[in-house]
Amino acid sequence: xxxxxxxxxxxxxxxLLSLPAAVLLALVPSTASAYPNPGTxxxxxxxxxxxMVRTSAGRYLLYATGGGLGFRSSTDRVAFSSGxxxxxxxxxxxxxxxxxxxxxxxxxxxxxxxxxxxVSTFGSNKSAIGLAASTTGxxxxxxxxxxxxxxxxxxxxxxxxxxxxxxxxGKWWLSFGSWWxxxxxxxxxxxxGKQMAGxxxxxxxxxxxxxxKAVEAPFVVKRNGYYYLFASYDTCCNGTGSTYKVKVGxxxxxxxxxxxxxxxxxxNNGGTPVLESHGRYIGPGGQSIMADSDGDLIVYHYYDGxxxxxxxxxxxxxxxxxxxxxxY
Length: 328
Prior knowledge:
This protein is mainly beta. It is built from 2 helices and 22 strands. The protein is globular.
C-alpha cells in the first residue's frame, strides 16, 4: 500500500482499520498471485535482513546485515537515510567466525536497546550469536557482550538469525536457526541476555525433514492468545533467482508445537504463506515483525527485478482478524 506522506498514510490507515473485519478482509489479497506490493519507501533502502524499532520520540531505527551491522533511520517510515555501522570497531571475537555480522534483531527492554546478531560465513554452520546493548540505539553507542550461543561444523543446527521474544509472564526466549535440522529455541536469562543456566533445553520449533532443508530466520510474536512463528523458506541471496518466501504457523505454547492453517506441523514441512514473489518483487524474506502506532508491520527485504535483483526494504501492515496474519 503506497504512503506518500505521514499524514496521508495515517489517515488512510485510520480509515481502513475502522472498516468492519469482513470488509477489510475483502480488500486483503488472499491468493499467491495477489500478494501486496511493499509500501513506498525512499532514500537509503538497499538492505538485507532488516530489523526496526520506533523510539519514544517517533524515530525509526533500522539495522541490517553487513559490515558492522548497517544502520538506517527515518522519521516517517517512508524516507530512510543511512548512517554509520552499529559498531565503530568490530568486536575481536568475530574473527573466529567471520569478518561481518548478519541478521540483527533489535528490541527495547528494561530501559535499553538490545541487539542480537549472527557472525558466520555463507553455507557454514560454524557460527555464533552475539549480543550488544545501548541506551540510545544509535551507531557507535553499542556495548558488545560477546557470544550467546554457538554452533560448530559437528552441530546439527546453525546458530544464526536470532530473535528475542519476551512473554507475558516475563520469560525470555531466543529463537534461531538456518537449514540443517531447522529452527531452535532456548530460554534466556533476563539479567544477562544469555542462556538461562538452569534451563538449557534446545527446543526444535520448525524443520523440513524431507526435501530441502531451507528454513531460517525465525520471528515469534504473541497475538490473541496464540504464539505465531514467522520464518523464511527456500533459497535466499541469489538476486532474481531467489525463491525466498515468508510462512507462518501458530501454537498455544511458546515452544510449540506450531501448526499451519491446514494443521500441518512446522516441524514437518508445514507453513502458511504470508509473502511470496510477484512481479518485480522477488524472494521476500529475512523478515521481522514490529508493532507500530497504526498496526503490526512486517519488515523484510526483497530482490528488485527492475534493478538487477538489488535487495531492497519492504514494509507492509498485517491484518490479524482471521486469526492468521495477512499482509496488505
